[in-house]
Amino acid sequence: MSTKHPSLLASIFKMKCPKCREGEMFTQNSIFPLKDLLTMPDRCEKCQQKMEIEVGFYYGTGYVSYALTVALIAATFIAYWILFGMSYNDNSVFIALGISVGLSILLQPWLMRLSRVIYLYFFVRYDKDAINNTSQK
Ligand SMILES: [Zn+2]
Prior knowledge:
Blueprint: H1 8-13, H2 61-84, H3 92-106, H4 108-123, H5 130-136
Bound molecules: zinc ion.
């Protein structure tokens, strides 16, 4: 096992447990089938960190997912602006808007997962000894 600490951003995007950054936060790696999209284990398989700290804990993820969606739409819009340019003389504003809204809808399952991950990361701090501590008990 490596002694290197996994980086925060990499762990978030790989959807790893916030405490040990090794266990998986979701029971399936893929977002399909969609009905199990948000299925999480009760506890992290590596460090026993609870995945749902209290009942209804993930209610607040709506705000995170809203912020992510807005950020994604803005980023796509700006990217389109830089790459293709934008003008009032044609429909490019609407095309750019359409692409960014479409993309944010397509990515919604992934964004829902990501917002849960980010939300849990707000509450649970990384503990480099998390796995060793539980195995000693
Ligand atoms: Zn863990």
